[in-house]
């Protein structure tokens, strides 16, 4: 059993050991209530000025720009430098199936016509069990338009 002198006990009560874990909300609230200071991350902020009002209660300023559009701006938060939006791949528009004149099309376009993902067509090619059988041209799959039209019942 550890025996401590009265002065050591008093010192430990007045200056508790720092915990390896951050204090929970209940401990922070109790410490704020006891000391009257705002506590952030375990440290008292006595120098900081108290907030003037709740940012939720402040109304944003409303103005009109030169084109007459209404612009709503908040005085509290400066604009955040957001990263530019990511560039999207251009949307591919394929020739309608009844206007396609080529005898064979690539996997992406065949998938578009058949309403399946390109990977599904690649699996059909590997297993040789799909409704359409492709041919290989320089290692690439080419799907016959006659087979696609037959699978869709358009021929």
Layout of helices and strands:
Blueprint: H1 6-14, H2 25-35, E1 38-40, E2 43-45, E3 61-64, E4 70-73, E5 104-105, H3 107-114, H4 118-127, E6 135-137, E7 140-144, H5 145-152
Antiparallel strand pairs: 1-2, 3-4, 5-7, 6-7
What would you say about this model in short?
The protein is 30% helix and 15% strand.
What does this molecule look like?
There is one protein chain. The chain has helices at 6-14, 25-35, 107-114, 118-127, 145-152, and strands at 38-40, 43-45, 61-64, 70-73, 104-105, 135-137, 140-144. Helices cover 30% and strands 15% of the residues. The strands form three sheets. A three-stranded antiparallel beta sheet has the order 5-7-6. The chain has a two-stranded antiparallel sheet with strand order 1-2. Among the domains are: 6-45, no CATH class; 97-152, Orthogonal Bundle (Multidrug-efflux Transporter Regulator, Chain: A, Domain 2). A hairpin with a 2-residue loop joins strand 6 and strand 7. The protein has 155 residues and is an alpha+beta fold. The radius of gyration is 35 Å and the shape is elongated.
């Amino acid at each position: 059993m550890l025996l401590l002198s009265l002065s050591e006990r008093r010192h430990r009560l007045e200056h508790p050991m720092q915990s390896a874990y951050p204090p929970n909300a209940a401990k922070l609230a109790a410490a704020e209530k006891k000391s009257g200071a705002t506590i952030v991350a375990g440290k008292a902020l006595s120098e900081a000025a108290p907030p003037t009002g709740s940012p939720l209660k402040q109304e944003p300023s409303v103005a009109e720009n030169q084109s007459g559009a209404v612009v709503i701006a908040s005085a509290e938060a400066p604009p955040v430098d957001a990263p530019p939006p990511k560039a999207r791949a251009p949307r591919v528009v394929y020739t309608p199936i009844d206007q396609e004149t080529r005898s064979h099309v690539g996997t992406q376009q065949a998938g578009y016509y058949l309403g399946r993902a390109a990977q599904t067509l690649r699996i059909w090619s590997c297993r040789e069990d799909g409704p359409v059988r492709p041919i290989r041209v320089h290692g690439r799959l080419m799907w016959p338009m006659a087979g696609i039209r037959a699978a869709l019942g358009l021929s």
